[in-house]
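Q: What would this complex look like in 3D?
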Amino acid sequence: METLLSNQDLQAIGLTLRLASVVTLILLIAGTPIAWWLARTRSWWKGPIGAVVALPLVLPPSVLGFYLLLVMGPEGPIGHLTQALDLGTLPFTFGGLVIASVLYSLPFMVQPLQTAFEAIGDGPLEVAATLRASPLDAFFSVAVPLAAPGFLTACILTFAHTVGEFGVVLMIGGNLPGTTRVASVQIYDHVEALEYAQAHRLAAAMLLFSFLVLLALYLWRPNPKKG
Amino acid sequence: MGTIEARFHLERPGFTLDVDLTLPPKGVTALFGHSGSGKTTLLRCIAGLERTPGGYLAVCGDVWQDGSRWLPPHRRPLGYVFQDASLFPHLSVMGNLRYGMRRVGAVHRVDLDYAIDLLGIAHLVDRKPDRLSGGERQRVAIARALAVSPRVLLMDEPLAALDLKRKKEILPYIERLHDELEIPVLYVSHSPDEVARLADHLVLMDDGAAAAAGPLQETLARLDLPLIFADDAGVVLDTVVAEHDDDTLLTRLDFPGGNIRVARRPEALGRRLRCRVHARDVSLALTRAEHTSILNILPAAVVDLAGTDSRAHVLVRLQMKGTPLLARITRYSRDQLGLHNGLEVWAQIKAVALLD
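A: Here is my prediction, written as structure tokens for the whole assembly.
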């Protein structure tokens, strides 16, 4: 063991960061409209949709993984679709991992954004409307800048949560080096193989990373007194 | 030139707005009433911030909404000044001023410079809103609303969130708007003093409906409305500073139908000055009192009498050669003096509130 982390470890870390980046980007685009809708709607559907978005917070990852496996597997509806499109099936691929992680990390993007949008209220948007800004214009020129801290929080939480997930990854991704074997699974492998020293180094790296991310989050959180 | 025609019906839990108004296309129209009377809601309907199916709104000939169409707020060429400081905190003062101006399409630089000058905010343009005082913020908000070259300016109690000192600081600027703007201004207020000082026309809002609408002086002198004003019933005199007397330290103010004298004013001769005369500060006599400390005793004719919210009092409407005046006296005094329509009396004005 000449280096601190083995090539396999580094590969797992690289894969983890790639997965977290892709998931964060997808959720930023997909989660923002959901959060905006949840923050501003007076529809009856707000409750049920909000509950579905929050579901991954309380659900055991294995439950989500199990159903995703069924739906995306060869006999599931999405599985049929992907096979018909000659894409094969999604489980045990990087793509399948991304889809599972997007669903699993959804509340970590949507909820901070929803809170930030709700804090803005109707006022600034009405002001923008009386200054000739269309709703879409007002969203980008007023709501997004005012919710910037919320965007930062949401992205950091989503990224960190994706890095830290294990159960869903194991069920959907399996354990294929370079494709689905992320850092958390790699640690599991090391422990299974009784390679405690390697498990230690990777685990310590994850611990340090998670702490630094959360530290940054708490240090940067702006003063809530003045909006 | 057309007028502003507004017909709205809006149902809210525990509140109904139902108005059908024709407002003048020029000058300041005050929407006056207690909180909950619907004056802010009416302003929001005009701005399109409240959806009012079946409503009708035409501004100087352009239909903004009727049965078949509804212009969203951002398509209505209006300026809106909100009650609280509504500046965007993430933009500088200049960023705020340019926000709307950039979105109206055509080049309106002249209007922006004009607005900055009119509101006296040139020295503030580089600051962030959180570095401004409440009065300065409201002046920037007014300039920002003017910079979009609106067809009508809507102001929702722009002074309500300010303390007395800030109010005094900003009122002269709003008066300048009154003097210089060609566009109509709809001004929501629950302060009789603000209305008396700024308005040319008055819409009295009560319980979601317009209880009265018309020119300020005329409307204030109506006897069927003082219940809304309660103790604040009174008229506004539009006067001109006519003479300063440095011996007596008094200033004479002329108005159509007479003149009054008040303590020496700083204003130059010829300046227009509005003052309020509360009905409770006017007493009546059948003969001109000779030995009295009351300075202003004017001949007037009784035009009408009406009851008030207090059973012991009546309200008397008087005319001083065309200028109306209200007096609040007791029922007992009315009977003692034998007041009836057409009777010539002397109105003794105990106090004149100068609006500055």
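A: To summarize the key features: The interface with chain A takes residues 47-49, 72-75, 78-80, 82, 84, 86, 88-90, 99-100, 103-104, 130, 144-145, 148 of chain B (CB under 8 Å). Residues 234-354 of chain B form a domain with the OB fold (Dihydrolipoamide Acetyltransferase, E2P) fold (CATH 2.40.50.100).
Q: Very helpful, thank you.
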